[in-house]
UniProtKB/TrEMBL annotation:
Similarity field: Belongs to the TerC family.
Membrane topology note: Multi-pass membrane protein
Keywords, alphabetical: Membrane, Transmembrane, Transmembrane helix
Protein name per the record: TerC/Alx family metal homeostasis membrane protein
Keyword Membrane set for record: yes
Amino acid sequence: MELALPLWFEVGSLVVLTLVLVADLLIVYKRPHVPSMREAGLWVAFYVGLALIFALLMLVLGDAEHAGQFLAGWLTEYSLSIDNLFVFVIIMARFSVPRKYQQEVLMVGIIIALLLRGIFILLGAQLIESYSWIFYIFGAFLFYTAVKQALSSEEETEDKENAVIRLLRRRIRISSEFDGSKVRTQIDGRRVFTPMLIVFIAIGTTDLIFALDSIPAIFGITQSPFIVFTANIFALMGLRQLYFLLGGLLERLEYLKYGIAVILGFIGVKLVLHAMHENELPFINGGEHILWAPEIGTWTSLGVIIGSMAVATVASLIKARHDATKHGHTLAEQISVDAKE
């Protein structure tokens, strides 16, 4: 289905969202601090409310299909962003980033993610426009990613340091201590890099890996570049505050990876079915469309996404509460105890 929204709405939306992101960045730059639970909660609620208002505007100015595709895309990207956030937690802990400066690191990570996703969205849209068979590749890649996601272990994620960081450690002089949020500092009259450089590179390469997963996933829901890009922006907005809101709870969402794996696997199958329905490859069905291949609707996709994340989250919280009870604590008390260790 070819979707079209008023040009003034698309341009106006991108301008407003850019201004909101710039304002958020200025707040971090002017007043670096650790936000309270109340502050973080209000910001997350504000950004979620903004996304829901945006979906409502799409419903009014477009139709239910526009709104449904945005909601499904936003929730998919939001769930993947939370998974991305978990890796950020590991990076912060590994490099002992002072909590006061974690906001700045997260903001840099979000900006890098937006830039990378913007590039991949443009490339993906062009590929889809030119080659309908690309959906076969996207679908297979997402299914492979889903299996890898389900089978991965926390230890593998924590122990893995990418080749770029290992090369930098060998080739450049890096101080052992942070100097605020500076990337370079001066020690004994010599200019050296701080560990912040390594942190930014680790965050950037993580963003690259997640962008490779997330863009094919959302193109399985909508082929509208505008919806793809705005869903990504809304998924990343408020992520910094969500990091502090969830705190130690994030590490206890043990089954989150299975919920994400189900979503990725489902969208992978959806993409392959769509490719079959639009098939033009001569060695498959003689180059003819495979008409019996079902098309999975937007609202079915939305239901699977919400259901998968809800089941994974509830199951994780039940297990986390059970584990805390075994140690004689409530879940909140266990989180507090672990944070002090």
